Amino acid sequence: MTSRGMGILFTSLRMFLRRTIRKQANNYVVTYGKHKKVQSFLGVHMLSNKQMPGHVRKLTRSTSRKPKNDRSLLDSLELLMIDTLLGGNISLQDQVKFHECKECLAGDGEYAKIGNFVLYRKHEQIYIGSLKKVVVLQSKQEMTTVAFVKRGECTTDIQKNCQKVQESDRTEAVKTTDILNAVHTIHDCKGGYCRIAENQSGQYLKHSSHPVHIINKFRLSKLPDTLTDI
Length: 230
Ligand SMILES: [Zn+2]
Prior knowledge:
The chain is built from 4 helices and 12 strands. It has helices at residues 3-24, 27-33, 36-42, 76-85; strands spanning 56-60, 97-105, 111-113, 117-122, 125-138, 143-157, 162-175, 179-183, 185-187, 195-199, 202-206, 213-215. It starts with a helix and ends in a 15-residue tail after the last strand. Residues 187, 189, 192, 194, 207 line the site of zinc ion (ZN). Residues 187, 189, 192, 194, 207 line the site of zinc ion.
């Protein structure tokens, strides 16, 4: 075959492939797939690489330098002790400002929000837990960020081929840099007998207080396939 003949063959082949590939997904599917909620469920385009892991954002500024007046924060002395235990350098003599934050950047590049489950490192072990509080301690020289996590208990449901998680009573303090992954979970509505309720704006799913959540395995994340059962 001449080189011109080969060229024509390749051009036709390329056009055929383009047409075939374009036909694979219906326009409705493509539009549905671009929906913000669907992309969030699948974990698409959620990664942020502008900041270093452990970065916190959405600060709730605390005007008081004495958090004793603010019941939502721990006692300042307790916080400084925790900072020391975690290897921080803020001393009691420093003028320290305290802030709470709503989000913290996990090591996998995704922001974890207060209430989300996360994987975190503690004493060289990896645990799952729910993020309860993120506090920034800031002196003139130093800034440390501490996350309070409620340890989770993970179980495997072999019949339904999924992993479930629920909070234990144990709360731990870790550096925000030890938050490794955000774990996307869905409430176990079937187990919790959650019902459809109605208000002025329409129908909505009313979750019960059932404490079990199912780990979303459909999400494109850097989580291990199976988390360690406790
Ligand atoms: Zn529910």
